[in-house]
Amino acid sequence: MVKATQKLHDLGQSLWLDNITRDLLTNGTLKRYIDEMSVTGLTSNPTIFDQAIKSSMAYDAPIREKLQKGKSEEALFFELALEDVTRAADLFRLAHDRTDGVDGWVSLEVSPLLAHDTVSTVRAAEDLFARAARPNLFIKIPGTKEGLPAIEEAIFAGVPINVTLLFSREQYLASAEAYLRGVERRIAAGLNPNVASVASVFVSRWDVAVKDKVPANLRNQLGIAVAKRIYQGYRSHINSERLQRAQNFGARPQRLLWASTGTKDPAASDTLYIEALAAPFTVNTMPDGTLKALADHGKLGANLPANGDDSDAILLKFAKSGIDVDALAAQLQDDGAKSFVKSWNELMKVIASKCVELKKAS
Fold first, then answer.
1. Annotated catalytic sites, by residue?
2. Half-sphere exposure (CA, 13 Å, Cβ side) for 198?
3. Four-residue CA torsion sign, 313, 315, 316, 318
4. For residue range 236-270, what is the model confidence (pLDDT) as tens digits?
């Protein structure tokens, strides 16, 4: 029997793992996900690394070694993270080469403390990409007001970018515009415009935000309705004359990626967001539990329609229930940025604490 993971892959949607730990890399779990569950990429963020380093002894020896070299907490972290993501990138290199760079990507985020500093964000993105020395590494930059010019500059500099923290169609289109501006500047400068990018739309956080504010019959519907609306915008954008012109010079469209697709409501299906958002030329990045659930009992239905779906009608119901979707999108993006800063600060504390413990033990 063919697993739903294989069916989704065959449909043309990439399955990526939203997790990375050193244990996943060393015990063969990630390789098994690739071989048995059609996983062709990976995403990470400060929260994931915070949990990984906090809960595993696998980082103790390398932390001790780097500590002896006088590394600061931030410098030490990025060395650890680069070691992990480059190992993962090498595992996905076959998929990357086989798809001529469409798939097989891993992602690493710049420090979220740089979210409001365009110049430093671009500098950090260039530095991390150069240090990794892997063609299949995305650098994650948030699609915030301050992040948009950094995205354009990084693309112009030739750095592949995963635009993160997108929640609405308007935020997505702004990120697609920033990407395309960077590509068009490369064309004008006589440079190769084939610089890859994905736009990461967060889905489940919508439903978490409104779960106690709407009637029971509307629960777990807002995230999917917003995603459908974004998908319509995505299809219109990739079919636009402007993008087709850029493609004629060798550019590729920025792909749409569904993020935050683990079900948060225990009363809902554990594969809710995966089954609802099947579509070709997109990516779905999911935590381990959701990936395993999909492989075990996932059932795929109809693909997302490019137009004519029920999203507008559903969004109208939320509006009548007092939900201002535009205001909530802005709030979710702002809250997401703050959440990553919080995780980053906790991550630095975890590393500092480990450093103290290891110094005592040595």
1. 140
2. 34
3. positive
4. 999 999 999 999 999 999 999 999 999 999 999 99
